[in-house]
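User: Need the bound-state model for 6-O-phosphono-beta-D-glucopyranose:
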Amino acid sequence: MATTTLVILGASGDLTQRLLMPALFRLHALGLTRELRIVGYAMESWSRERFERHIHKALQSFAPDYTPAHWNRFRRQLDYVGGELHPEHLSALKDKLSPGTLFYLALPPPLFGTAAAALGQAGFAKAPRGGWRRLIVEKPFGTDLASAQALRQAMHTHWEEEQILRIDHFLGKETTQNLMVFRFANRFIEPIWNAQHIAQVQITYAETLGVEKRAAYYDKAGALRDMLQNHLMQLFSLTAMAPLAEWDPEVLRNHKVEVLRSTLPITPANVDTHAVRGQYRAGRIGRKQLPGYRSEPGIARGSRTETFAALRLEIDNWRWRGVPFYLRSGKRLATNYSEIAVQFREVPGALPKAVHAGNNWMIFRIRPTEQMDLLVTAKRPGLELAGRPVVLTAPYASSDDREFSAYEQLLTDAISGDRTHFLRFDEVEWAWKLLMPVLDAWQEGAPDFYAAGSEGPASQQRLLDPGHSWRSIA
Ligand code: BG6
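Assistant: Bound-state model below.
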């Protein structure tokens, strides 16, 4: 019997095909999951062979390291059970489980609560002696504060918080994890990582992608729910949190929550100076002429959903008071460009006239490549004592490094029971609390337009302090 079983609910769906199976396939190829049995569960009454064919096809399309030889080894790990999300149907899984079993809810979000409850009613939340049971839940966790709280309630009828692994795939990204290592493992960073030395922080996640085939989901969600509430809030709290007293997932998550709790609430009165929304109109990216959001298939002609959202957040604690954190993300922007950029304050004192020291920036770049850049001023070679800006760049990975996708990282952690890179409920809850006034205000009015291929709506400028400007993504 395999020592661990992963049951994927929603095994015939898109997430399983595009992300989960390719990740499991690679981990298996590297010898990291030999003891794992993977049981697909979905509504289709497929045989195991039919499921294998389905997964085989997916891997041929989506697994970059697919080989027929490896497929022949991998397929032996697969199994399948068909059924609805009812306890009686789910109990057919009983004989397939191992002492250690994970249930992965790769389902449409409205089914998370039902699935967790049905698994609980089937008796699967209770671990056998010496074993364990875990539940992996995809994002989004709720669509607002009340629905997130209701979902928690539904899950906690059967499952303990410690058993629930809430996924935010950004936490599996190398740069996100590097934020923790780089900040806390280098002596020179911590003493200057505060309002005395830092002037502003900009967190940008710009995509050229449009709404793709996700109109039904995206038109209800919008950029604030899709990107800011989860991914960017995580980058925000990891950038701002205090150093840990102990490397422990609970201590880490306490520190992240502390940042959110110390963030000044956005109020109905100041939404306009703290939040901006935009929607793309027709435009051009490179040579490609692209339609506006409202002309995309499946989007209502008069849709007021935002495809760009920007926030100004301020943390009212000793470390950060007076430092604006600007967060923004949008679809159909000029380039795929993403970074966490920290600007330091100007240097005091006198310098030779020709030096013109610019502000230093420390940049953790996620896209187009993962790298770290430090913008400094150095002497310009020559007879004059003049300065010029220089970028000290560290590519994040070298050619010898083996890189892993976010899902490869998170599945490995979930199997080994490491909760460090998963969300605790209070993180999700605080993020919703901070955004609710914005979501409420945006029920009225409409987003500002921006052309596809631009850097977002001009109105994003109004979030900035005098003297600050958005970094270019072009
Ligand atoms: C997802 C959002 O969570 O993250 C998408 O739903 C977005 O809209 C994606 O495109 C971005 O993440 P990545 O890792 O694909 O760049």
